[in-house]
Amino acid sequence: MQQPYFDAKTLLCVKDLPLAIKALAQGFLHGAHASQQRGVGIEFSQFRAYEPGDELSKIDWKLFARSDKYFVREAERESNINVWLVLDCSESMLQQSRSSSGEALEQSSPIGQWNKLTYARYLAATIAYLAQKQGDSVGFLALSGEKQQQVAALPGERHWQKILLALTQLKASGTFPDIKAILTQLSAVRKNGLVVVISDFHQLNNELLTLTSKLSNRYTDVVAFHLDSDDEINFPYQGLVKFQDLETGEQCNVSAKQVRAGYLENKQLADDALKAELALQNIQYVKANIDQALDQTLVDFLSVRARGSRR
Fold it and tell me: pTM for the complete prediction?
């Protein structure tokens, strides 16, 4: 594979967010990763008026010659689906890696360029773009302790722009909500289609695993993106370190040398337990490091789906 050119530093340099997402997605719609798409239109269905952003190749030029108006040919697919993006917007999603070793990071390094929520925005927006390009309807649900935000599942690039705007306006707040408080929103999500859950899976009382268990059924395919970071994976800290819980504000001082081995062991056990529990729920697990190039996460995700595997 080519060098990862869709890292945080590169994407954040693109001032036009829609342009950044389209640039990222084009690698999967054309070229090396095109074969990883899940199906395309197979039969002509109807005409509709041209909208800005539609591909020129889809314009029916013969109809234009007769009517002097632009119309786009739409294809009917074997099974259009609803793709729902469910984002964890609790305050733990503000976590990001920092240079804790005292050594300066390389200027080109993506480490520390964004937090988990920013990464989740780009990931969700790109999946939404790929889905609407296939003709699927895309919906969006953001969950936090203070506010739930929902955008209905609809097709088309204009609707994708609405989802993009909603993603841009997201703010992390509080803790992940109790499932009883969001059952109304979940009823719209639990329909035939694909649900993509994006979270760090930091939970006090298994709130997120309860959520995924409510979503998973024989009519709904659920994918869980587990967001992690270099600091969490490698524990690069030295000396006396103060840690603070982003959701509760609780702080503790530890000796990095004394706790490193125990932390790494416990983290591996926790990650394995999470993956095992999601497998029992028949949910595909995807590990995503926010300090690595986003295109590699998408390659891993689409490659697994292309093989028909959910693990």
Answer: 0.76
